Amino acid sequence: MSDALDKAEAAAREASTNTDIVRIVAAVLAAQQAVQQQPAPAPCQHQHDRRPGRSTGEWLAISCAVCVGGIGIAFASIAIAIGGISVAILALVLRSMWRDFQKGR
């Protein structure tokens, strides 16, 4: 029985020296509870200048326009190439005719 009494006395002494730690822990817990009890801030009420995202139909129209534009550019470049070849052939024919005309004189 004296053993249990000695343990209780030692625990009482230890508790009396740890009162500062207990007070600090109690203060920290009280601060945490005070922070948790504060109401959450209200969401912002100002208007954003962002317009809503595009719909699927708008994206489909944009992609179709890009495809048609790409095909148009492809045909235009083919037409320019054909025109360049035609001008080159015309220049060769005229040069040949000019030489023949110069030799005949």
Folded structure, characterized:
The chain has helices spanning 2-17, 19-37, 56-104. The model has no long low-confidence stretch (mean pLDDT 80). It is mainly alpha-helical. It has 3 helices and no strands. Helices cover 80% and strands 0% of the residues. It has 2 domains: 1-37; 56-105.
The end-to-end span amounts to 146 Å
Beta-strand percentage range? under 5%
Helix amount: over 70%
Biggest β-sheet: count, sense, barrel?
A: none
Topology, number of strands: 0
Mean pLDDT: 80
Radius of gyration: 47 Å
Number of helices: 3
Gross morphology: rod-shaped
Number of domains: 2
Helix-and-strand structural type: mainly alpha
Order of helix and strand elements from N to C terminus: HHH
Question: How would you briefly describe this protein structure?
Answer:
By secondary structure, this protein is mostly helical. The chain is 80% helix and 0% strand.
